[in-house]
Design a protein that fits this description.
Blueprint (H helix, E strand, L loop, with lengths): L2 E3 L6 E3 L3 E2 L1 H4 L7 H14 L3 E3 L8 H10 L7 E6 L1 E3 L15 E3 L3 H15 L4 E6 L8 H13 L3 E7 L3 H10 L2 E7 L11 H7 L3 E5 L30 H21 L3 H8 L1
Parallel strand pairs: 3-4, 4-5, 5-8, 8-9, 9-10, 10-11
Antiparallel strand pairs: 1-2, 6-7
Helix pairs in contact: 2-3, 4-5, 5-6, 8-9
């Protein structure tokens, strides 16, 4: 496994991280036994950068990761996120939530409450990297990051991050407290961050963390959309339907042809590109 320094620290993080959303949220039915096996295998491979969020399974994913995280705490750099909330406070731990049944809460009050809840579910004392999952359009970013910074002072969080933030909010947030990581979708099919976001993260010495580097599975060239679980949110993505899907499948097939010549899989080539 290859490693890179995290932001302006001496921390070595695996270049390939472990995103765990699909284990508990959005991607059809889950299997906790297989997920635990995957988590342990990731450790064996040297993957030390793990990612979760409180909305994934409405807390279920954090609890799942804790089973492997707690006994291996010194081997894992754990990132989690807050911000998304359900309109129904009694919804329970579910795998699928309609978009119109969630909202963003970046209030100082929720920052503190969410962090405390995540720490309890994870079974740890400190979160390594705490992301604001999405910027709250109704709360100044300064208020949200100010509350996040207080968590750092209290020793409950080590580093702060943002997810899917625009350049203006990134700059404003970084002016309040050092933002060490910016997470956004990035793949051969999703490249909007190249124009402004990537140059800005380099300028501010932030680690850029790409999610969905395989374009939700399309870049593997072996995703059969017709076989995706009915509850899988990808069924409703424009890229997975109609002419968009046909075009994307053609691109994936072209990538696979190049990969064959190099003696690797399409997925390996797509990840290497990122």
């Amino acid at each position: 496994m290859k490693y890179r320094k995290f932001a302006d620290t001496d921390i070595d993080l695996s270049t390939i991280g472990l995103g765990s959303m699909g284990m508990s949220f959005s991607y059809g039915e889950g299997n906790d036994k297989e997920s635990i096996e995957t988590l342990n295998y990731a450790l064996e491979l040297g993957i030390n950068f793990w990612d979760t969020a409180d909305i994934y399974g409405v807390g279920a994913n954090e609890e799942l990761l804790s089973k492997v995280l707690v006994p291996n705490r010194d081997k894992i750099f754990l990132a989690t996120k807050f911000g998304f909330r359900t309109k129904d406070p009694n919804i329970g731990q579910v795998r699928n939530i309609p978009g119109d049944q969630m909202y963003i809460d970046g209030s100082a009050k929720h920052v503190k409450e969410a962090a405390e809840a995540s720490l309890k579910r994870l079974g740890i004392d400190t979160i390594d990297l705490y992301y604001l999952h999405r910027v709250d359009p109704n709360i100044p970013i300064e208020e949200t990051v100010g509350a996040m910074a207080a968590l750092v002072k209290e020793g409950k969080v080590r580093y702060l991050g943002l997810s899917e933030a625009d350049p203006e909010n990134i700059k404003r947030a970084n002016a309040v407290h050092k933002i060490s990581a910016l997470q956004s979708e990035f793949s051969l099919l999703t490249r909007e961050v190249e124009k402004e976001i990537l140059p800005l993260t380099k300028e501010l010495n932030m680690t850029f963390v790409p999610f969905s580097p395989l374009a939700r599975g399309l870049m593997t060239n072996n995703l059969n959309v017709d076989e995706i679980d009915e509850k899988d949110f990808r069924r409703n993505l424009p890229r997975m339907n109609g002419s968009y899907l046909e075009n994307n499948q053609n691109l994936a097939a072209g990538l696979a042809e190049i990969a064959v010549k190099k003696g690797i899989s399409a997925a390996q080539l797509a990840l290497a590109w990122v």
